[in-house]
Amino acid sequence: MGKKRKKSLNLPSSRRQQRSTVDNCFHGEILDRLMHELCKGIETAKKSKGGLSEKIWIKQQFSIGVNDVTRLLERMPRSGNNGHPPQSIQLQAILVAVDCSPKLLTKHIPVMAASRRVPVICIKDDKGGSFRLGALVKLKTSLSIGIKAKGTKINQVIDKFLNDKEFKVSDDVVIENM
């Protein structure tokens, strides 16, 4: 028997970005401000929901859970693929709680989002990021929430968060547009 050689891993740039993105989690004052602004945006957007029940309205605004977010990402065309017509549902951003166990549950989301150029916002909280995400959509917990691009007040809050330097408390935490 011969010696086994280790294979060197030449990870694509999206996987290298994924490693650095997971290290850049939002917590503390930045997270509190984001969650506060999102709650205000949700309450403002609810006023224009018409005759829809709250549960149906939330499903129209958000993709809730790892499976649903993954399904929507799979249906979105890759960023360099011009052959497919644009899908009717596009994700503006994805919120991911990094306090899940095992980590493999959400590990694929940043990689898939990178190929579709959807920014990923990692949430880390001592009280449990999954509890904070769940509270946004009236659930006990949620590991990931995709925000659908619908042009509502919720989308304006996310745009402000992604683009406005004043919204962020410190410059050491960055969101990478993947």
Question: Descriptors for this entry?
Answer:
single chain; 178 residues; alpha+beta; 60s Ribosomal Protein L30, Chain: A; four-stranded mixed sheet; 4 strands; globular; disordered C terminus
Per-chain topology:
Layout: H1 13-23, H2 28-46, H3 54-61, E1 62-64, H4 66-75, E2 91-97, H5 108-115, E3 120-123, H6 129-136, E4 144-148, H7 153-163
Parallel strand pairs: 2-3
Antiparallel strand pairs: 1-4, 2-4
Helix pairs in contact: 1-5, 2-7, 4-5
Nutshell version of this structure?
This is Ribosomal protein L7Ae/L30e/S12e/Gadd45 family protein. With 178 residues, the protein is of the alpha+beta class.
What report would you give on this structure?
Residues 10-20 have a biased composition (Polar residues). This protein is of the alpha+beta class and 178 residues long. It has one domain: Ribosomal protein L30/S12 (60s Ribosomal Protein L30, Chain: A, 2-Layer Sandwich), CATH 3.30.1330.30. It is 42% helix and 11% strand. The protein is built from seven helices and four strands; from the N terminus they run H-H-H-E-H-E-H-E-H-E-H. A four-stranded mixed beta sheet has the order 1-4-2-3, sandwiched between helices. Helix 5 (108-115) links the parallel strand 2 and strand 3 (120-123). Helix 1 packs across helix 5, helix 2 (28-46) packs antiparallel against helix 7 and helix 4 (66-75) runs parallel beside helix 5 (108-115).
